């Protein structure tokens, strides 16, 4: 608007200036004529002779001056417009640079050869790759993924055919080794003649978004698994009362109504579908009334309520409204409880005198401890008629399987009017078989506190006794088998070790060519392979024997006071050569405050050797192993930390089991026997310690033997004890 106003003022200002100039010329002409008349005595024939020339002069002045003024004004106007356009262009470029620098996205351009010609500096901040690295390269050259994938072929086809594209997603590995996810959109650019000159577009980093999506999917999967794992029936309805998710138990409950448990189905649609199948017996004949009540409870939950279904099934339904308006329905199958209630009601009258006692039969004794009542259930158990007990004491009923001392102790207890439980004895049936019985009783007193006798219950525990006997026998057999296994392993270990040592010796003789040169290098390789395999087998036999002794409880600790520093020196001497052979750095360090330890030196050394051996096995060339001894709040810690393959901590329980091994990454040199950690853990526990492990795939593993602080002994105390 300001530009149009300025142009209007300039245009009409030029016109006004020309008119004023013409008027001025006209007035000057008239004045000059009048002056000439007065001064020089010159008179025109009439007024027209004065005015007409003056008017013509004024008009001529206007015609001459107006174009000139107008041209001058237009020049000034164009100059002003040009300055304005240049200023707006500078502002636009500045805004573009500010936007490009401030935006989380970055901008790019391609030439007609589909090679990058421009990228905003933001690309280096996001990807870690300099802008110059991209210039001159095609999208295919910067793919970072397999360009033969269908999505890449479609994208490259869009580029080659100069079609616009939007939100093309791809992944690329950054300089730090991490994978980042990107999305790019582009528009083809054409010249005035319609010729293709390149692409212009924008790209964004979607890594956090993609990772969030992955986490969300994992969380959703976890939630779905958790929901399916519930013992209750679970349904989630959104704020529009449409089904979002339900667990398998709820779907099984409504399996006769297919489609009613699909996401998007409203609660009313679901209930109507169930009603149509007649699954709610209380609603038959009054469906709409029942539905109205059910919807009212659903829309305004006021606590749990019971709901009957067909076939006698009962549900306890608890609905809750969430802050966002959605609803959760949790239903519990209470059919067993309802059945139990019904059974209880049915038997309440019969068992009202003994409602608090679960028994196979009932009995009562008077104040002289003679039977006054024995329920008839006893006849089916013991085979003895109930009336045969009346008037007799417990001793007079001839219990067997119990010593006189035990019976006397029982009689002394009841004579003291004390309650008793689980007094066991046997009884001989008329057929000669034995039945094992258990009785419990409480003393009965009248309102004055006088002793009235005993009331109690009894039960048949024959099956329990037989089961206990069988368990004992099985335990004894298991212990016998364990000892037999240990003896077998010891014998077989000795039997294997003798020929194995001979094999190792002969293999070493062949390898060292002590009996003369071999016909060819292959024989030396064979001998080396025999020796290596024999050593592995020997170590395995030794580990199996050690573990067997530990499991059998035959490994006794030979405790002494020994120095930690010499122990660590032995570790360095034993494994430094092995570590150097596989180009792994081994560092051994002992804290100054640690001097001696009380324990079995051989066992501690073996446990630590197993940990270091594992570290050497699973650490690649260029890696590092650190063996340290220190004293902290947890106790005396002997730690082995490596930069090896590591494993997922979810596999820890597997790793600590005998012969358990974690998943190995492709290309590992070799796997262990799966006994080292189990033996180290067992040896630590024999010292009242623990084995703590922290590991991560591709990062490494730290295994720590933690012994009680009381086993760490200062140097002076250790020498005094010696």
Question: What's the quick description here?
Answer:
By secondary structure, the chain is of the alpha+beta class.
Record keyword descriptors for this entry.
Beta-Lactamase, 6 domains, flat, 19 helices, 22% strand, disordered C terminus, 23 strands, alpha+beta, 5-stranded antiparallel beta sheet, single chain, 722 residues
Low-confidence runs of at least 5 consecutive residues: 42-48, 355-359, 716-722
Average predicted local confidence, pLDDT: 77
Q: Largest sheet at a glance?
A: 5 strands, antiparallel
Report how far the terminal alpha carbons are from each other: 105 Å
The count of DSSP E runs of length 2 or more, i.e. the number of strands, is: 23
Give the CATH superfamily of the largest domain. Histidine kinase-like ATPase, C-terminal domain
Instruction: Round the Cα radius of gyration to an integer and report it.
Output: 51 Å
Q: How many H/I helices?
A: 19
- Backbone structural class: alpha+beta
Overall 3D form: flat
> How large a portion of the residues is in β-strands, by DSSP E?
15-25%
Strand arrangement in the largest pleated sheet: 2-1-5-4-3
Q: What's the architecture of the largest domain, going by CATH?
A: 2-Layer Sandwich
What is the CATH level 1 assignment of the largest domain?
Alpha Beta
**Structural domain tally:** 6
């Amino acid at each position: 608007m300001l530009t149009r106003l300025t142009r209007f003022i300039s245009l009409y200002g030029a016109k006004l200036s020309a008119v004023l100039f013409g008027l001025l010329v006209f007035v000057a002409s008239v004045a000059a004529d009048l002056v000439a008349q007065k001064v020089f005595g010159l008179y025109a024939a009439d007024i027209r002779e004065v005015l007409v020339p003056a008017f013509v002069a004024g008009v001529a002045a206007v015609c001459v001056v107006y174009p000139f003024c107008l041209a001058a004004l237009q020049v000034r106007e164009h100059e002003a417009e040009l300055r304005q356009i240049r200023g707006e262009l500078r502002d636009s470029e500045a805004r573009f640079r500010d936007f490009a620098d401030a935006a989380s996205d970055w901008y790019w351009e391609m030439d007609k050869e589909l090679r990058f010609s421009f990228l905003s500096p933001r690309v280096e901040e996001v990807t870690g790759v300099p802008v110059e690295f991209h210039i001159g390269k095609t999208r295919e050259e910067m793919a970072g993924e397999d360009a033969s994938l269908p999505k890449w072929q479609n994208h490259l086809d869009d580029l080659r055919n100069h079609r616009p594209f939007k939100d093309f997603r791809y992944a690329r590995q950054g300089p730090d080794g991490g994978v980042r996810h990107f999305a790019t959109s582009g528009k083809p650019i054409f010249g005035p003649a319609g010729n293709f000159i390149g692409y212009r577009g924008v790209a964004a980093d979607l890594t956090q978004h993609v990772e969030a999506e992955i986490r969300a999917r994992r969380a959703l999967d976890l939630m779905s698994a958790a929901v399916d794992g519930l013992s209750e029936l679970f349904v989630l309805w959104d704020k529009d009362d449409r089904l979002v998710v339900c667990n398998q138990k709820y779907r099984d409950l409504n399996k006769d109504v297919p489609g009613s448990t699909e996401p998007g189905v409203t609660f009313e649609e679901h209930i109507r579908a169930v009603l149509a199948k007649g699954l709610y017996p209380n609603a038959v004949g009054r469906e709409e009334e029942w539905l109205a009540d059910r919807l009212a409870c659903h829309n305004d939950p006021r606590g749990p309520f019971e709901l009957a279904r067909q076939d006698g099934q009962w549900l306890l339904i608890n609905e809750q409204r969430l802050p966002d308006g959605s609803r959760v329905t949790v239903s519990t199958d209470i059919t067993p409880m309802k059945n139990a209630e019904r059974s209880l009601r049915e038997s309440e009258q019969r068992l009202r005198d003994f409602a608090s006692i679960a028994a196979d039969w009932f009995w009562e004794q008077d104040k002289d401890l003679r039977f006054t009542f024995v329920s008839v259930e006893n006849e089916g158990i013991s085979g003895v008629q109930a009336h045969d007990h009346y008037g007799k004491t417990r001793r007079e009923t001839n219990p067997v399987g119990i010593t006189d001392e035990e019976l006397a102790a029982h009689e002394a207890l009841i004579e003291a009017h004390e309650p008793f439980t689980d007094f066991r004895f046997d009884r001989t049936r008329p057929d000669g078989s034995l039945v094992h019985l258990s009785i419990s009783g409480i003393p009965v007193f009248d309102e004055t506190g006088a002793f009235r006798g005993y009331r109690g219950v009894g039960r048949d525990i024959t099956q329990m006794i037989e089961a206990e006997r069988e368990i004992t026998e099985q335990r004894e057999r298991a212990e016998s088998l364990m000892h037999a296994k240990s003896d077998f392993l010891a014998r077989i270990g000795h039997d294997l070790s003798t020929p194995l040592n001979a094999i190792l010796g002969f293999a070493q003789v062949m390898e060292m060519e002590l009996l003369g040169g071999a016909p060819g290098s292959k024989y030396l390789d064979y001998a080396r392979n025999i020796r290596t395999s024999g050593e592995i087998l020997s170590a395995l036999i030794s580990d199996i024997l050690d573990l067997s002794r530990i499991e059998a409880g035959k490994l006794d600790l030979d405790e002494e006071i020994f120095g930690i520093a010499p122990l660590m020196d032995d570790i360095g001497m034993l494994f430094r050569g092995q570590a150097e052979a596989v180009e792994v750095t081994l560092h051994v360090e002992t804290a100054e405050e640690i001097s001696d330890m009380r324990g079995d030196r051989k066992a501690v050394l073996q446990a630590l050797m197993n940990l270091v051996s594992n570290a050497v096995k699973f650490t690649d060339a260029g890696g590092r192993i650190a063996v340290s001894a220190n004293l902290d709040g947890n106790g005396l810690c002997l730690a082995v930390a490596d930069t090896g393959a590591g494993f997922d901590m979810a596999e820890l329980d597997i790793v600590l089991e005998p012969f358990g091994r974690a998943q190995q990454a492709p290309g590992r040199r070799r796997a262990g026997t799966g006994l080292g950690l189990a033996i180290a853990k067992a040896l630590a526990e024999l010292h009242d310690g623990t084995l703590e492990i922290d590991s991560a795939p591709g990062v490494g593993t730290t295994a720590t033997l933690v012994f009680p602080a009381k086993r760490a002994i200062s140097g002076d105390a250790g020498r005094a004890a010696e």
